[in-house]
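Same chain as my last thread, 141 residues:
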Amino acid sequence: MILRLKLPLSFLPLPWLAGSVPAGFPSPAADDAESRLDLNAHLIRRPAATFIVRVAGDSMTGAGVHDGDLAIVDRSIEPRPGHVVVAVLDGELALKRLARRGGRTFLESANPAYPPIEVGADAELRIWGVVTATIHRLEPE
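reply #2:
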């Protein structure tokens, strides 16, 4: 299912700790938020060309894209091999990595349980956009 959302350029600026956070023990020096971060401005470079889609399935887990994630998709980016794209192949919607080898085009999963899909010469392939980011919840909804 494709969710097309109108996103304002500025929605809800959140507190942001400048710098990085170690994945080990917290530092007492990182107790104060230094500025604010607008997630829309951070994740969406071209709002007029961007849509959001909820990911279904586990075929892209090796790329860090999980079932239920929200994928930020930019239609203005020219898709190139290596990009994760939202594609329609013969009427079927898919989120896969675009690949080209030996003059042939493939849509590849990032999970070894799913083989690459070769785009045949007679196939109809449309790329809807390039995935630029995902939003992954760690806490269940």
